[in-house]
Amino acid sequence: MVQKIAFLGLDNAGKTSIITAITERFGFEDEVAKLIPTRRVDRDTFKFLGIEFTRMDFGGQEYYREDYLKKPEKFLGGTDLIYYVIDAQDYKRYIESLDYLDQILLFFKEEQSYPRIAVLFHKFDPQIVKEKEINRKILTLKQNLAKYSQAFDIFFFETSIYDIKSVMDAFSSGLSLLFDKMEMISHLFAEISKNYNSILIALFDSRGITIGEYYRPHLQLQEKLKIYDIYITVQKRIIAENRDLFEFSEKFESGERFSGIVEVLNFGGMEFYLLFIILEEEENLEKTINILDKIEAAKPEMENLILQLIQ
Ligand SMILES: Nc1nc2c(ncn2[C@@H]2O[C@H](COP(=O)(O)OP(=O)(O)O)[C@@H](O)[C@H]2O)c(=O)[nH]1
Ligand SMILES: [Mg+2]
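Above: query sequence and guanosine-5'-diphosphate SMILES. Below: predicted holo structure tokens.
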């Protein structure tokens, strides 16, 4: 069955930019600059874990919003997952945005259907993440949302197209809400990590959606971003050079060195990318390399879990 995903929010919130960023992970910024306001509803489809998804980008101008709310069953009926995008920098329109979400939720309440909801506080750009005012405003907004939307499972994310990882994380986490057993993969990775000096173990589908991931606790945002940058570069090279394995060795700003592999795996006729990064042990590089080999041992279980997910 096709699953329906709706991107909703006021005009100018950043919905179309987010979708573009997800679709064209590589060099998406040019594309975003050319965007024109969305007219009514744009649709496209994609496959994830073998399931077909329709993604709807709802133009957010007032006259469109009125249209949708006049015939909500036509536009919103059967939605499985909503990404509700709020321009976190546009304080003046918070109330208007909450109002719109409220009316959308009212429709679903009356229908007694409860899609999963991911609220994205968007335009939370890297250079302002530490500013007090925006953090306070977002917190208040979250509290208000939690209060009047109790019937719904709402999840919050802060995103910015200038931090592609934040967008991919929010998108992946939203999708994972539609798969009951998805967290089993992350649990497996947490287990595996205990045996090694792991910094990160992650599994992505071919379009960069996270299926599961484990990060070493206290890994800093900068370190995460660095790893993600490397991952994107490596994935590009793997595709360009038609490889199925890539090994690398790099260091963090702190001077700490790490080794990693990206491996293309084929489970159930689909391609996945496994990223495995461990701390390098200076005195014993050979040991490090051996450890990388050992990821082999975990593959059958990974495959088994993936097959359970997609059946
Ligand atoms: N600062 C900042 N601007 C953004 C971000 N995402 C989108 N924008 C800008 O916000 C404007 C509206 O974006 P658009 O995707 O058309 O919004 P939509 O109406 O919700 O589809 C555009 O000028 C984008 O360049 C972001 O993360 N940070
Ligand atoms: Mg748009």
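The chain has two domains: 3-176, 183-310.
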